[in-house]
């Protein structure tokens, strides 16, 4: 049991791990029902990353989480994060954004097309492999005031 707890706590935020673990979701729900926090974290991770397709199974997971005080607290925190994310997306997105080092033009275009960035005021592309080819995408950011291009291509 110790090894399983360690493995789940270590990897419960990794989508590939949760995809594999979702094949054994019933035993994980049983562990969560018995009060194992690591199993509850794994269930919350599966719900947060939308790994489970079946709505019935999702409802079963939510019910399992709500049977314990800790599980209820974890599920409430998950719901609050999702609500905050939706509100942020509706308000025009974040004000500051830093692209990870080694990101490319394709990464920037993919990210900008995936969400709402109407409120973005500060964008850091430092240490990325972004080139002038993505300039047409940057022009579409109406609130952009600061652009860090240090050490880019």
From TrEMBL:
InterPro entries: CMIP. It comes from the Eukaryota. This is Uncharacterized protein. It comes from Octopus bimaculoides. The lineage of its organism: Eukaryota, Metazoa, Spiralia, Lophotrochozoa, Mollusca.
